[in-house]
Every structure is written in C-alpha cells, then in structure tokens.
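pasting for ref
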Amino acid sequence: MPPDARGRRARHALVTFQGYGDQLTEAEVASRILGALERRVLTSANLELRGYFAMVATRTTSPFGGTGEDDAISKASDQDIEQTALLLCHYDADGDGVLGYDEFAAVVELVSAQTGMSLSGEHVDRCFRSADVDGSGGIDLNELLLYRATSVGADQGQGSRSG
C-alpha cells in the first residue's frame, strides 16, 4: 500500500465488517465510535468532547490497512470502545487523537503499577511495536482496542512481580 504525503499508508475506503460480512466505511467507523460514546460520555454535560472524539474517529485508520483481522472496532462492545476511548483521551497529552510512544508508555506504566509487574524499557518498546499494527508511529483507538484484547494478558506473563 503506498504511503501518503505524511508517510502513512493510504486509507482503503472499505474494510470487512467481521461479524456480519458487510463492508464498513470510514463514516461507519466514526458512527460506531461516536455511537458507543453517546449514552454515557457524550452527554449534554460533556458536549466539548464530541469534537475530540470525532477527531479520534478520523485518526482511526488502522483497520483500513490490513486484511480484516486488524479491525477491532466492529468486534468490540460499546463498553469496550467507551473504556478504551476514555483511556486514550486521558493519556493523549498532545490532543492529537493517537498515542505517541511516551503517551503509550504511560498507559503501560499504569497497567504495570496496577498489576505489580515490573516492565523494562525494552518490553515497553516491544509492546509499542506490537500495538502499532499499521506502523504509523502512533496508536489509534482501533490499535488500542486490539492491544487490550490480544496483548495485555500475554504481556502480564513477561514481566516480573515486584514486592
């Protein structure tokens, strides 16, 4: 897939909607993300978040570069999308809608502290490379969903218990 002017892979217009065999467009990805956030996050008390999460949806491009197995958006529950989107929002220090390396490392440190695991910098590097499925240098919402679903349990076995 050819890179665009920013060095990112060009987006495909459609990705297989794994659960139903339909095609999922970028607009449907945005609708899926915002719809999952409507009930409890994007309430009238939090309208300013709508613009941020709309931007997050446009930055969620990783499902368009793979063969379908990289699509976590269509497989995730609304609750998983909501929790992961809020995690991304909290750690997205520069507000660009994706987690850079340092922002992702802060998430890994949080998990490490909560589980009592001690992870090396090398392990965090491997986690970041594993989570960045499209190689863009940032972790979008779809990639964070994938990481949570596939890597967190495996990663816990690679650290060492402290204490």
